Amino acid sequence: MEKENQLKNDVEKAQLYDDDGRVKRTGTVLTTSSHIITAVVGSGVLSLAWAMAQLGWIFGPLVMIFFSLVTLYSSFLLADCYRSGDPVSGKRNYTFMEAVHSILGGYYNLLCGICQYANLYGTAIGYTIGSSISMMAIRRSDCFHENGKNATCRFSSNPYMISFGIIQIIFSQIPHFHKIWWLSILAAIMSFTYALIGLALGIATVVENGKAYGSITGLSLETVTETEKLWGIFQGLGNIAFAYSYAQILIEIQISLENSVCHRYDIDSNVGSILQ
């Protein structure tokens, strides 16, 4: 009877808490996959076509491959840093900052924290600008349809940026926002949707023109100045780097998957140890 009660208590504890004593998160493989898709196939992919036009058919793909390898290496590295010490039973690091603090400590914690939050801050700015540009494009398209192609359709992006910022502030006040699992699934569907729309528009344009435009070196100096060419290259590099921002939130995504996948393993381990 005593062993059965102990077994029951350990099973209930394993169901509610992880090995650090914290309440288990309820993320599943589906929601975690949605997080990954949303992070990898973000709105940054919409600017990759323009970035390729700036960098050319040689340098552009090489830059994309380079950032892909950096992201892949960072992902493996951060996955290994999820637990400190033993990779199975070591202390869990629930955030990027906890991993840095546990493994490096000292001023590295502050330095990496500044880099991470600066990256997140820049990403937030990028999404704000991207959303305002998208809304302006929709309004400009409506203006041309109503007034003709020769109409002067110029609008300020400030109202859209302010509106987007206000909406973000309101959403950030929602309690337990990270537990709204269906939002990640919706975001993943939207990511696939606009990525496929962009691909379809690109293919349709090539079919309509009868050939694929572009060159090995990008925009020719015959159409732009040297300053515009250089500025376009840097903008293209920035757009590609912006599209590869997945690794910085990997540990936060991994913790939701870890609890879900190891849930059955923890229970079986406890049961086996008691029955022995």
Automatic annotation (TrEMBL):
Belongs to the amino acid/polyamine transporter 2 family. Amino acid/auxin permease (AAAP) (TC 2.A.18.1) subfamily. It is a multi-pass membrane protein. One of its GO terms (molecular function) is symporter activity. The chain crosses the membrane at residues 29-52, 58-82, 94-111, 180-207. Carrier protein involved in proton-driven auxin influx. Mediates the formation of auxin gradient from developing leaves (site of auxin biosynthesis) to tips by contributing to the loading of auxin in vascular tissues and facilitating acropetal (base to tip) auxin transport within inner tissues of the root apex, and basipetal (tip to base) auxin transport within outer tissues of the root apex. May be involved in lateral roots and nodules formation. The keyword Transmembrane applies. This is Amino acid transporter transmembrane domain-containing protein. It comes from Clitoria ternatea (Butterfly pea). Keywords: Amino-acid transport, Auxin signaling pathway, Cell membrane, Membrane, Symport, Transmembrane, Transmembrane helix, Transport. InterPro entries: AA_transpt_TM. GO terms for biological process: amino acid transport; auxin-activated signaling pathway. It is found in: Cell membrane; Endomembrane system. Residues 25-259 form the Amino acid transporter transmembrane domain. GO terms for cellular component: endomembrane system; plasma membrane.
